[in-house]
Amino acid sequence: MLTKKVKSRILFLFFIFIFSIAIIFFIIKSLNQNILYFSTPTEIKQKENLVIGKIMRVGGMVKENSITVNEKNIQFVVTDFKNEILINYTGTVPNLFAEGKGVVVEGRISDKNFFIADRILAKHDENYMPPEIREIIKKNVK
Amino acid sequence: MLSNIGIGLLVLVLILSFLTIYYASSDLKISNQSIKKSIYKLSLFQTTFIILSFFALIIGFINSDFSLINVYENSHTAKPFFYKIAGTWGSHEGSLLLWVNILVIFSYLFLVFNHNHNKKFRLYTLIFQNILIVGFLFFLLLNSNPFNSIYPIPSEGLGLNPILQDPALAIHPPLLYIGFVGCSIYFSAAMGSLLSDYGGKLFALSIKTWVKISWCFQTLGIIVGSIWAYYELGWGGFWFWDPVENASLLPWFAITALMHSLIVLEKRNILYSWVIILCLLTFILSVMGTFLVRSGILNSVHTFANDPSRGIYILSFLSLMIFSALIIFFKNQKKEKYNFNLKSKETFILANNWFMAFFLVTVLIGMLYPIFLDVLTNIKISVGPPFFNIVIIPLVVPFMFLMAIGPKFGWIKSQNKIFYKILFLILGAIVVNLFILYFFGKYSLMSNLIFIAAIFLILYSFLDIKKIINNKNKTELPRIISHLGFGLLVFFIGINHQFSLEEDFNLKVGETKVTNNFNINFEDIKIKENKNYKAVIGNFKLTNLKNNLVQYLNPEIRIYSNPETLTYEAAIKTKITSDLYLTMSNVSRSAYYNIKFQKKPFMIWIWISALMISLGGFIQLIFRKNEN
To answer: Is residue B580 part of a domain?
Structure first.
């Protein structure tokens, strides 16, 4: 038979085990609710069940001569050299944002051609290119 | 020339490391009390040479010696003197040299300052530290050598990224590195302790100071980085749960847990294995974090493939480290008796450790999950701030309660009757919270709880301070300052988060915008030539419509020539109660300037309370010295 001491120890370990499973489950669950998917304009075009209003990220190159500004918004076109999407953005642009450069924006899609961005992701280095965009260029240019 | 000197010095250090390992191993067999003088000398020479090599690199940067690739890539003759020096650790190669420097210096200091401890333990620690030094030196020499030369010698360098040309960011890496690499010494000490069977209280005493040193510097380093992000990156925030920030937070959680359980080991001689695990974990997380950031794996695994040598070397070295650490740990592990009473200080310290472990696991999952998902399914995701906020913030509430009452309990078993005091203070906190709610506006239930818990911790700390003034017993003071700092930090972040104003709009020169009781008039722009950049300075007249106070803010757009980059400098008016924050940027081919206006209450207090946390540690360090 198990002694009282061993029994209480088993019980203790059991509780720890259940507790950690509950915690991991809780973490993973909130993780799944808060992940941001990254898409390219082409992926958005091809997607059939597009969730409108869910926060996501879109990346590509800012098309040459596409930036227009009025007193409220900035609009520009993001392209992956196959498809493009029009971005509407309110806010300040990061210092390395320019036409012909790579960009990642975060916001909500309103239809397949129009995206409302809350944020343009800042970069720290002019030579740095988000790996996602580097891949797009590799795939679509040449 | 400089290249040869630098590489020569590094090779010398490498040879000295091997010699130290050899002599230390042979000295292990001799059973007398003191370590051979020659080992001290070897270690001293090693330290001298590594510092010299660092100075050689600094000289290269000061003289703009472009025969070194590293100087060519990261410096420029027109750069201000201060940033020429700071450029030394601005690049991957230079910072790795700083890394090895700290490894060596700490190795020597540990050897010298722990002379009253067990000989075998000190020798094993020295051996392991030197194995680490050898590992990183090989990496430095073979893969990321800052002294590699270039021929023909270019006449001008490429320049340092302008965003790094900032005082806060110049001291940020050395601070963080002392914090992160400082952990190496108790990683080695933990291994030494296992192998020499030198555990318990004495082991705790031997590493205590080192844990505190690295904790203080880590905390300070993270704060400085955060301050930099606030005024340099132009979005007005200071923490974004970005993978790079998370990488610095992981070892901080581990080291904070370690610092607390070390007290238990010192006073009660229990939790030895747990302390060892934390010692190992802290350094492993430091190495992991630094290199996930440095090799670019954190953004995507595909970057990894671009520089496979750098990543693979570190990955294999890291796995070797973890693997051998685990083997040594399980081979030499000792059975311990745990005897905990629920109402005792050690239980509360253990609770701290559980919370730290929870925070650590959460951040780790949030950080690594995108990498795994990308490898396994090729889906690209990122984990946003909401995840961390949802998971971590609720736990901060009980955490702060325990932080306030935990230290009140005595060791082993406590009969402390503080129930009524707690109840009284909670009521006090609720009343203060209601005041805020009544005067300033509504917020969510979770925010209410956070405020109550934070105010509770603050009130409790004030009572403790009052007691100290009465008793004149100052030993508790550093702890109280740090805990009070944490309470204030959470409180002010909460206030700041709840009551910040933010407005984005575009203006032409001469136009006026009215928003949130402010009249913002974009009066004119001026152009100013500086040594290495041209500044476009905007002049904004802000009129507070409530009290008609007029203020001028001058944000800048800086155009750097080497490398050709734009940066936006925020104009920040700091006051005791709030910061006014204005950034201006220009969108190409347009007369419109892009304006972000923010009013952030109690911003300065966030920095002050964060600095208090690390100040507590520094006070304790100085205090301890006087005691001995």
So the answer is: yes
Among all residues of chain B, which has the CA nearest to that of A119? B235
Q: How far is CA B520 from CA B196, B527, B557, in A?
A: 69, 21, 18
- Cα distances from B419 to residues A70, A125, B327, B468, in angstroms, run 62, 55, 46, 21
Average pLDDT over residues B347-355: 91
* Among candidates B365, B387, B505 on the partner chain, residue whose Cβ is nearest the Cβ of A72: B505
* A63 interfacial to chain B (CB closer than 8 Å): no
Tens-place pLDDT, residues B279-316: 999 999 998 887 777 666 665 332 333 455 677 788 88
Q: What is the spatial distance between Cα B487 and Cα B410, in angstroms, rounded to a whole number?
A: 22
**Pick the residue with more confidence: B627 or A98?**
A98
> Is residue A138 less than 8 Å (CB to CB) from chain B?
no
Which residues of chain A lie closer than 8 angstroms to B590, CB-CB? 67-69
How are beta strands B533-544 and B518-529 bridged, if at all? antiparallel
| B2 within domain boundaries | yes
Which of B340, B337, B336 lies closest to B412 in space, CA to CA?
B340
User: To the nearest whole number, what is the mean pLDDT of chain B?
Assistant: 88
> B498 Cβ partners below 8 Å, 6+ apart?
B440, B441, B443, B447
pLDDT in tens, A88-127: 998 778 777 878 778 888 888 888 888 999 888 766 655 5
The answer to whether residue B617 sits within a structural domain is no
Q: Tell me if A91 and B358 make a contact (CB, 8 A cut-off).
A: no
pLDDT (0 to 100) of residue B262 = 94
Q: Is the ipTM of this complex over 0.85?
A: no
Residue B440 lies in a domain: yes
| A41 φ/ψ angles, rounded to the nearest 5 degrees | -50, -40
B29 to chain A, any CB pair closer than 8 A? The answer is no
- Whether B62 and B124 map to the same domain: the answer is yes
- What pLDDT is stored for residue B508 in this prediction? 87
Residues B202 and B117: beta-carbon distance below 8 Å: yes
CA distance B510 to B591: 11
The pLDDT of residue B53 is 96
Q: Say yes or no: B199 and B116 in one domain.
A: no
How far does the CA of residue B232 sit from the closest CA of chain A (Å)?
10
CA–CA distance, A10 with B386 (Å, rounded to integer): 37
Minimum CA–CA partner of B556 in chain A: A95
User: Which residue type sits at B175?
Assistant: L
| pLDDT exceeds cutoff 90 at B147 | yes
Is B544 in a helix, a strand, or coil? Answer: strand
Q: Is A31 on the interface with B (CB under 8 A)?
A: yes
Residue of A nearest to B385 (CA): A34
Identify whether residues B233 and B150 lie together within a single domain: no
Report the residue from A33, A67, A131 with minimal CB separation from B299.
A131
- B213 and B296 assigned to the same domain: yes
Q: Are B556 and B569 in contact (CB under 8 A)?
A: yes
Question: Where is B249: in which H helix or E strand?
Answer: helix B243-268
Domain coverage including residue B18: 1-165
Please give the share of chain B, as a percent, with pLDDT higher than 70: 95
Integer Cα distance of A16 and B514 in angstroms: 57
Which DSSP category does B30 fall into? S
CB contact under 8 A, A74 and B382: no
Angstroms from B212 CA to nearest CA on chain A: 30
Indicate whether B125 pLDDT > 90: yes
Do B197 and B291 belong to one domain?
yes
Same domain membership, residue B203 and residue B143: no
Considering only CB atoms, B504 lies closest to which of A33, A34, A91, namely: A91
Query: Do residues B103 and B22 both lie within one domain?
Result: yes
Supply the pTM of this predicted model.
0.90
Q: Are residues B150 and B284 in the same domain?
A: no
Q: Do B587 and A27 touch (CB under 8 A)?
A: no
Among residues B116, B137, B165, the one where a domain terminates is B165
